[in-house]
Design brief:
Elements (H helix, E strand, L loop, with lengths): L7 H17 L6 E6 L4 H6 L17 E6 L12 E6 L4 H15 L9 H20 L2
Antiparallel strand pairs: 1-2, 2-3
Amino acid sequence: MAADHLSIDEFFTKLSSLLDAHRASTHGSVFLTQKRLSHSSSSSSSAPTSAPFPDLDVSSPLPILIRVSNGKSKRNRSAKVKISTVVQPDEIEGFFVRYAEVMKAGTPMLKKRDRSGRKKAVKAKKKQKVDGGGEKK
């Protein structure tokens, strides 16, 4: 499984190209996931511990697995892109700085949600509550 993971530089290159491809299209999704890699399964199965969650009591930081997928369904597997990399604990800070730069550059079309309608509804409800409460005397 470790052979499938890219180096950090290759990961950012492929992530940039994936984001550029989605920027050119009118719609699409890119799924980003990250999780902590736990101890190898061979060591945990050979020595059962009394603790219910042995991964919570670790003596040293664990690496992080970062995955990116373009979210294509099973029907369109040939177009599905899946990339992943493993980030060691001493590289995490530098990785996330670069990760943030790539994500900001790759998602310029994102905009803040328009919540003006929601704010108007809340104000109207408050006004109705205040006016309604005064008339019931």
